């Protein structure tokens, strides 16, 4: 069977090794799944001004130490944990900086690695909730429920600079890995004369679109918010509208990111990172504890036929209105398909609304499972009973869906998710859109909801008939290619070793 042909920009977790200073230590790592096998491209650019011998501390040891911060908050932390574990598996000493609450979600995984002989550890720092005006325990962006809380959360990230810098000076690492919203990490890296790796949860494909919109401004040539325009400079024809293009959202971070992404002199393939977790236990602990119990969820799936279940999950950030949740329930029920639906748990600050239709739970008993809170997404997607994935098109969810070989119903909400939808539905041709037309605010008030009839039609298109089967076959081919890339001796495995060697050579040439 011939492999699917797809453009080179493809999917990505984006990991950048870089600095804000033009003449400082500079790397750029862009992680993207490429045409030949859905590999993950990593592009590296080295500044001529970086001097690895400037600090004698680094020339006195033969080992490589990397400190990674898992508390950016803007994206799920577990891809960063996956990367840290791969560094350790390839001979580096990896230290993960986290807060006590966040660390509790992955400490068991790290302890198992330590028992297996890996040099990996967790260093704890306190998150300044009170000083930033946040309630205790609000240590991730998904815990915020209003714009005001989100702004306070980013203020709390700024307050981490001093304790993190103190920890780095004490440990003297060879490299620092930090999230995009730790903008001060560049200054810290410059002071210590070490390279800073920047993890970015956005993919290479949406970054190409961001760059094209910024450079060419095609949205200026249309007359309405819903009139389509073509995004210039891409291998495929991609059409967007102003409502989907995020054109007014200009941030210092994104502008800086676009300026820094350059064509690298070297490239490595190092993912998809979700495939680094091999055992069911590792996959179960790749996130929070799920409220329904992993055994209950998997036992339920074990009783179902192959490709018969739709998995519905919108990530940890989405807040749907009661009206929209009601429409989702109607659409799932009327589709007649079996499903697992992950619903965000209400916090004590949110309204508790009984939004389910009367008698819904009794009518779907046996063919529907509702999980409130967190679910073991990778385990669910990889189960043979799962034949479709309704997703918000967050980048990690897209990657996990591709790696599992599961076709998707796309329902983007905000950020780059509308760009990712185009990739899944029009370029990869392994998904179908539900019909979302514009950004939704991260509040209960989303405006006019997507109707249950539209949800039902999208689910039926994916799960029933020849078109859905073609998408399923294509998704399976991409999943097989992703798995081959990360196997021992595969391109990702070999290139990750090459990447680690490159980092070592900076300090021990």
TrEMBL record:
Is Iron a UniProt keyword of this protein? no
Kindly list the GO molecular function terms attached to this UniProt entry. UDP-glucosyltransferase activity
Q: Which UniProt keywords apply?
A: Glycosyltransferase, Transferase
- Does this UniProt record's set of keywords contain Hydrolase? no
Q: Which Gene3D superfamilies match?
A: Glycogen Phosphorylase B
> InterPro entries this protein is in?
UDP_glucos_trans (IPR002213), UDP_glycos_trans_CS (IPR035595)
Q: What class of enzyme is it?
A: transferase
The Swiss-Prot or TrEMBL record describes its family as follows: Belongs to the UDP-glycosyltransferase family.
- Name of the featured protein: Glycosyltransferase
């Amino acid at each position: 069977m011939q492999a699917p042909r797809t453009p080179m920009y493809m999917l990505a977790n984006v990991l950048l090794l870089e600095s804000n200073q033009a003449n400082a230590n500079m790397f750029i790592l862009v992680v993207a799944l490429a045409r030949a096998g859905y590999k993950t491209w990593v592009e590296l650019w080295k500044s001529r001004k970086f001097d690895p011998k400037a600090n004698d501390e680094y020339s006195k040891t033969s080992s490589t130490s990397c400190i990674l911060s898992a508390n950016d908050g803007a994206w799920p932390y577990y891809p960063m944990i996956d990367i840290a574990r791969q560094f350790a598996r390839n001979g580096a000493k990896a230290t993960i900086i986290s807060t006590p609450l966040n660390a509790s979600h992955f400490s068991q995984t790290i302890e198992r690695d330590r028992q297996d002989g890996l040099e990996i550890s967790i260093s704890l720092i306190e998150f300044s909730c009170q000083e930033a005006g946040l309630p205790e325990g609000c240590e991730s962006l998904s815990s915020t429920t209003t714009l005001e809380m989100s702004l306070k959360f980013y203020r709390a990230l700024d307050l981490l600079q001093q304790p993190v810098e103190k920890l780095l000076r004490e440990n003297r690492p060879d490299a620092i890995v930090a999230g995009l919203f730790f903008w001060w990490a560049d200054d810290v890296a410059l002071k210590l004369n070490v390279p800073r790796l920047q993890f970015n949860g956005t993919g290479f494909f949406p970054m190409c679109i961001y760059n094209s919109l910024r450079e060419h401004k095609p949205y200026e040539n249309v007359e309405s918010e819903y009139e389509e325009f073509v995004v210039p400079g891409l291998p495929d024809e991609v059409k967007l509208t102003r409502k989907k293009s995020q054109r007014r959202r200009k941030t210092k971070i994104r502008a800086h990111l676009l300026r820094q992404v350059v064509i690298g002199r070297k490239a490595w393939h190092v993912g998809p990172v979700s495939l680094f977790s091999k055992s069911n236990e590792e996959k179960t602990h790749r996130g929070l504890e799920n409220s329904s119990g992993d055994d209950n969820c998997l036992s339920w799936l074990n009783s179902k036929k192959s490709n018969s279940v739709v998995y519905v999950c919108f990530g940890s950030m989405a807040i749907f209105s009661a009206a929209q949740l009601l429409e989702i329930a109607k659409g799932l029920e009327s589709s007649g398909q079996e499903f697992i639906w992950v619903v965000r748990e209400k916090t004590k600050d949110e309204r508790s609304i009984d939004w389910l239709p009367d008698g819904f739970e009794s009518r779907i008993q046996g063919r529907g499972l509702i999980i409130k809170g967190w679910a073991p997404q990778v385990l669910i997607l990889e189960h043979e009973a799962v034949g479709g994935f309704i997703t918000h098109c967050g980048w990690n969810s897209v990657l996990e869906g591709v790696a599992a070989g599961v076709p998707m119903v796309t329902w983007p909400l905000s950020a780059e998710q509308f760009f990712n939808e185009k990739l899944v539905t029009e370029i990869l041709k392994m998904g179908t859109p539900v019909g979302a037309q514009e950004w939704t605010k991260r509040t209960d008030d989303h405006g006019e909801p997507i109707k249950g009839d539209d949800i039902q039609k999208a689910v039926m298109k994916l799960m029933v008939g020849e078109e859905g089967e073609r998408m399923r076959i294509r998704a399976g081919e991409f999943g097989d290619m992703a798995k081959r890339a990360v196997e021992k001796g595969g391109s990702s495995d070999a290139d990750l070793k090459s990447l680690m060697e490159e980092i070592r050579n900076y300090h021990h040439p």
